[in-house]
Amino acid sequence: MIIFLAKATNFFKSKRGIFTPPLKFVLYGLVSIRPMSKSTSIPKKLQRVRDHGFDNYMEIEKKTRKILKFQSLILSQRNETIPVSRLDFLARPLGFKQDEAGAFMLKFPHVFEIYEHPVQRILYCRLARKAHLQIERERQALYAQIPGAVTRLRKLLMMSNNGRLRLEHVRIARREFGLPDDFEHSVILKYPQYFRLVDAKETRNKYIEYVESEKDPSLTVCAIEKLREREYREKGADAEDIRFSFIVNFPPGFKIGKYYRIAVWKWQRVPYWSPYEDVSGYDLRSIEAQKRMEKRAVATIHELLNLTVEKKITLERIAHFRMAMNLPKKLKDFLLQHQGVFYISTRGNYGKMHTVFLREAYRRGELVEPNDLYFARRKLAELVLLSSRTAKVDKELVNFERERENDEMRCRRRDCVDDDGCQDFGGEKKNSA
């Protein structure tokens, strides 16, 4: 056979060596090659499809994030004001270049106000009245929902392997989970029946530890399980089909082929362990156990996003809990396999930061089930979207109201003076009579 192949290849050789067919063309007619069938598993690498609704949300978030840095800078100063001459120097650590901070503040007159000092005759900048009202509203909403934040922190600790998390990791993500800045005292130390601070001397790190010996059964119910029960009762769906399924909403323009539909349908029916269940006693070496652990990672990230206030968190902050919650190493590639459940947006920080959204929690750019803290934070976004033209109109209205009040006060004073004068004159007449 080998001699025959060698002679066949020499036959196709020309004297000048111009045409030399590859060996695979010769073997193609002798060996029947069966084409590979398409796999029914979810592909590891999928083309990322953008959802402009979430990306536009993050474009506004990029501006509000800078405004929050400016607000904290202004509030940390004496009398909560900054001279315009020192603005570039103080804003340099925030990433602003020369003459960039002042131009940025002028874009948002409903948040920042530049005025002339009545005595020093120099320009100062401060927060506008609407911005102060928004900060106070957010502070009240933040401390009003502390009991809910305690529950979220308890569930977060119950999802960890050993019931403990690093304090620094929770502090970095405190805004997403609705925890105040002083949560170490107002939440952890205030509720010693739930939490305990552990100082690890060998690592020089503090840990938050779960105190309760047994997990509360009412807290171990995932949000997706409640949603499945609601769909089963309202829509009357098949119990076997929705027993382990997730709500899948693919972004617009996502191409769904026949084999991909089959793969998703099979994946939806794969059973998995709950994120609150201890899996240390299971044998995880089999293929079936690996499939369950992979789907458990999806359920863990799904529950993690449900514990946040705005149902979104950055990918980098999810990575902080990777070791404690048995999440995969390549989180971005893993989440891109499930674009119908999650959405990763690269907008908001020039592609340097990735924000993960829970798709089912949003509809037309708004939360399906909003809360007071979400409304307070969206109020700042509304101030950002207001144009400078409306700000000028507001100032003119304020000045008009002040002028009208001053005119009314002057008229009242004149009336009082005239009335007093008439009374005195009348009194003098009576006395003289």
From TrEMBL:
<dbReference type="InterPro" id="IPR045040">
    <property type="entry name" value="PORR_fam"/>
</dbReference>
<dbReference type="InterPro" id="IPR021099">
    <property type="entry name" value="PORR_domain"/>
</dbReference>
<dbReference type="GO" id="GO:0003723">
    <property type="term" value="F:RNA binding"/>
</dbReference>
<dbReference type="Pfam" id="PF11955">
    <property type="entry name" value="PORR"/>
</dbReference>
<protein>
    <recommendedName>
        <fullName>PORR domain-containing protein</fullName>
    </recommendedName>
</protein>
<feature type="domain" description="PORR">
    <location>
        <begin position="49"/>
        <end position="387"/>
    </location>
</feature>
